[in-house]
Design brief:
The chain is of the alpha/beta class. It is built from 11 helices and 12 strands. 25% of the residues are buried.
């Protein structure tokens, strides 16, 4: 009899976690969700408070049978799916389908796949968070309600094979409304005047672009103004130099990682998340679905040590950023490398590029402000 059975979502994660746990633990994978809304009919009992009607996916029946047998033979079952609503729902579905008991089942979550994090999770198990489960079920039910009701209308009225959903339908409406505003916009013309001045200060030549603070309604007015400028003389009224400091950007959240990976690396959103998932499952970065900019005390101290080693203590400045978005999960961490002393990793070219982007952003967030001199002429 196996003493402990640990069930995670992906086989890649299972392999990584198995390295940290001893011989008393068997780690296996559910390969994502094991059941979904029934495909025949609506899959939702609308007459009874929209109760979901689930069925085990045909391709998961053998896996479920194997998991049932392994769970029956184990003294304790540890549900270790991700800590977001999808992961919580997977844990709940496993509990229901495998016929698990509260007494012998424990739910564990971790933000990074390291030995310290895994052992800490096992020492601090919790129950299944039914609120998160209900949030996932509500999302899934809404997907089905909107999709089943609207998609057939699209097939008849627009084009076969089109789909509608709770998000994309709203987005399409917003796009249409914006397009209507563009079509109805009444164009007007105006003329702006810009100039480039060159001057010398302290034997150093400068070039300064300036724009007139108002615009002309007609081209004739703009040209008349320029004609007057030909005979005008210009002088510098004042030169003001003052020091400024620039704060570094906070560590990455899911959305800011997607934006920067697209801007700097040319990665699509789906490609960024796929690579981040691989980095997370191999224990290289923390969980990649987060809206928090917090860093743990371990990460703050690691970043400080790394900066001091590379540049000196004057360049290190430990700071904790706060999340501005309403409803953000402050208990979670931002996306960061699990070990900040590893500047590079082994892996594919894309994995190395994304990891380097995350490493630099994390380190930069804990550095002293950039010192800048601003000159106003």
């Amino acid at each position: 009899m196996q003493k402990n059975l640990v069930i995670v979502e992906s086989p890649a994660k299972a392999k990584t976690i198995e390295k940290f746990l001893g011989k008393d633990y068997m780690v296996t994978s559910s390969y994502g969700h094991i059941r979904d809304l029934a495909k025949k009919g609506f899959g939702i009992d609308i007459e009874h408070q929209y109760k979901p009607e689930y069925e085990i996916s045909p391709d998961k029946k053998k896996l479920v049978a194997d998991l049932k047998k392994a769970a029956k033979d184990a003294e304790t079952v540890w549900l270790a799916s991700d800590e977001d609503r999808e992961g919580e729902a997977i844990a709940w579905h496993l509990f229901e389908v495998l016929g698990l008991k509260d007494k012998t089942t424990k739910r564990i979550v971790f933000h990074e796949i390291t030995k310290t994090a895994i052992l800490h999770a096992i020492e601090n198990p919790r129950g299944i968070d039914i609120n998160l489960v209900n949030a996932q079920q509500a999302r899934r039910v809404l997907d089905r309600l909107v999709g089943f009701e609207l998609s057939p209308v699209l097939w008849k009225k627009v084009k076969p094979s089109l789909s509608a959903g709770r998000v994309q339908s709203v987005v399409v409406r917003l796009i249409v409304e914006c397009e209507e505003e563009i079509k109805n916009f009444k164009q007007t013309s105006s003329f702006r005047v810009t100039a480039i001045f060159t001057f010398t200060v302290d034997n150093k030549e400068y070039s300064l672009a300036a724009e007139l603070p108002y615009r002309f309604e007609t081209e004739e007015e703009a040209l008349a103004f320029l004609q007057n400028c030909k005979e005008a003389s210009y002088k510098i009224k004042s030169i003001d130099k003052k020091p400024l400091s620039k704060m570094p950007a906070p560590p990455f959240t899911t959305s800011t990682l997607q934006q920067e990976a697209g801007r700097k690396l040319g990665f699509s959103v789906s490609n960024t998340m796929r690579i981040a998932q691989q980095l997370y499952e191999s224990g290289k970065i923390t969980y990649m679905r987060t809206d928090s900019v917090n860093l743990s005390q371990f990460a703050l101290m690691s970043a400080k040590k790394e900066i001091e080693n590379m540049y000196g203590p004057q360049y290190a400045k430990t700071r904790q950023f706060s999340t501005k978005s309403k409803g953000a999960q402050e208990a979670h961490e931002a996306i960061r490398p699990t070990y900040l002393d590893q500047q590079t990793i082994k892996g594919t070219a894309d994995e190395r590029k994304l990891y380097e982007l995350i490493w630099k952003r994390t380190i930069a967030s804990q550095m002293a402000e950039a010192q800048i001199e601003k000159t106003n002429v």
